[in-house]
Amino acid sequence: MKTFKNSIKPSKDEQKIAIASYDALASVIEQLRSDNPEIEIEETQEKIKIPLSALKLLGAILKAMSEGKPFSLVPIATEVTTQKAAEILGCSRPHLVKLLKDGEIEYTKVGKHRRVKFEDVMEYKKQMKKIQKQHIIDMMKSDEELGVYDS
Questions:
Q1: Three-state DSSP class for 46?
Q2: Using only C-alpha atoms, what is the Rg of the chain?
Q3: Which helix (H) or strand (E) holds 39?
Q4: What sign does the dihedral 24-29-30-31 (CA atoms) show?
Q5: pLDDT, tens digit, for every residue of 15-52?
Q6: What is residue 114's three-state secondary structure?
Q7: Where do the domains of the chain lie, and which CATH numbers do they carry?
Q8: What one-character DSSP code corresponds to residue 8?
Q9: Residue 73 burial (CB count, 10 A)
């Protein structure tokens, strides 16, 4: 399966097309009763059976595109190198290796190389953002109590 290594930011024209496409697809998906509906490519009149879950994923992609949000597709079970995991987390590779050794993130070894599941990296990133948000809230409360910050 091909994965996009970089996120893709849609152009203004792509956003306009995605808005119309998303609205149409969302209304059609609600009416579908089959788990594997058949779609037709108008240009070639070719009919294709496609899993409903894939159509829903296409809907999510179109929604992101219509909002101008960058997106990237990565298979869930993808394993990444320690360098790539560090880039995703925005830290150095040695810091990531320390996190791995400390058991903060699970990993496997392939020969002498460590591999980290993409989903584990994203889960760790999500946890860290949650902790950071709580720290910010705690700092704001502390500032309010000291009268330094007005809410």
A1: strand
A2: 22
A3: strand 38-41
A4: positive
A5: 999 999 998 898 888 888 888 898 888 899 999 999 99
A6: strand
A7: 12-66 (no CATH), 79-146 (1.10.1660)
A8: B
A9: 12
